[in-house]
Amino acid sequence: MVRFKNNIGPFIKWVGGKQSIADQLLPCFPQDFKCLYEPFVGGGSIFMASKWENAVISDMNSWLIDTYKAIRDDGEQVADLLDNMPNEKNFFLERRSKHPDDYPTHFERAATFIYLNKTCFRGLFRVNKKGFFNVPYGEYNRRYYDPGNLKRVGDTLSKVEIIQGDFELCLAGVSQDDFVYFDPPYYKLGGHSDFNRYTPDQFKEAEHLRLAALCHELDQRNIRWAVSNSDTPFTRELFKNYYATSIRGRREINLNSKSRNVRELLFTNYEVLTETDNSLEQQELLLAR
Ligand SMILES: C[S@@+](CC[C@H](N)C(=O)[O-])C[C@H]1O[C@@H](n2cnc3c(N)ncnc32)[C@H](O)[C@@H]1O
Predict the structure, then answer these.
(1) Which of 198, 250, 264 to mutate for ligand 1's pocket (most ligand atoms within 8 Å of CB)?
(2) In this predicted structure, which of 140-149, 153-162, 259-268 has the lowest mean pLDDT?
(3) For residues 51 and 35, is the Cβ–Cβ distance under 8 A?
(4) Is the CB–ligand 1 distance for residue 40 below 6 Å?
């Protein structure tokens, strides 16, 4: 596992988080760009593992993005609020029954987000159509945050741009000197419907098509990008004009199964040159360009 720069790591558990494969992904990124754009930042494992301080991070999940902003603005206030939240089922249910927009400050919203993440079943984030959190209580005895890590995350966030919104809207400032890493909710694999409930709207085929079209447009503008996704005929078809590198992934397939090892793909519009064992597979997977 990659050692985070300045010992920084994600402050939440996030389904689809790339923490365990960051050491495979980072060598596949270009080393010479100005700004890292991460439009599906989620738990932020790639952004935190990378050495780029110049970054624009964004996500559609407004509760998550408010949490990033609150930690940037005053992580200590978030920590103080967390210190007063008991890990008890009744308190959990009371917090869960409140709509995330009903908290008076983004600090309280953020503390509740982290609290629910650390006390709910398997750290899942799932909301219903109305935006209410609906994961059951997990009965875990884990601490809510690491004070040193929270402080370092806050310091790092003070240097980056944080945006809430759809992936298409967050790339307004991107230029040829920059690099974009896309890590969308994965396309369903092997008949299982992948976990896809990070936001009230799901990420379906139409969104994958929209993402592929955006990648094509960026390619026309000579902007480099990489896209993580599952290895399926559909995803291969979407990116058939680009390069693909096979990555050893560890995926949680659905709520009832344990995680398992699967291969996933990293599509890129540049050739990946690494010393890792991925390079052989990359040649096999080199799609017609
Ligand atoms: C696979 S996760 C990203 C995981 C992240 N790379 C990490 O290491 O934690 C996908 C993310 O896409 C976000 N998302 C879903 N639909 C989106 C959209 N239309 N635009 C931007 N972000 C979206 C979800 O909220 C989720 O955080």
Answers:
(1) 198
(2) 259-268
(3) no
(4) yes
Verify that 138 and 109 share a domain, yes or no: yes
Domain that holds residue 135: 64-156
| Number of domains into which the chain is organized | 2
pLDDT band at 195 (very low <50, low <70, confident <90, very high): low
Ligand 1 pocket: which of 11, 19, 40 to mutate (most atoms <8 Å of CB)? 40
Q: Are residues 174 and 43 in the same domain?
A: yes
pTM of the shown model: 0.90
Residue 287 confidence (pLDDT) above 70:
no
Contacts (Cβ under 8 Å, ≥6 apart) of 139: 89
CATH code, domain carrying 205: 3.40.50.150
Q: H helices of 9-61, where?
A: 22-25, 45-49
- Tell me the CATH number at 81: 1.10.1020.10
What the block records as the tokens of 211 is: 């993402």
The rounded Å distance from CA 57 to ligand 1 centre is 11
User: For ligand 1, is residue 249 a contact (CB within 6 Å)?
Assistant: no
Residue nearest to atom 26 of ligand 1 (CA): 42
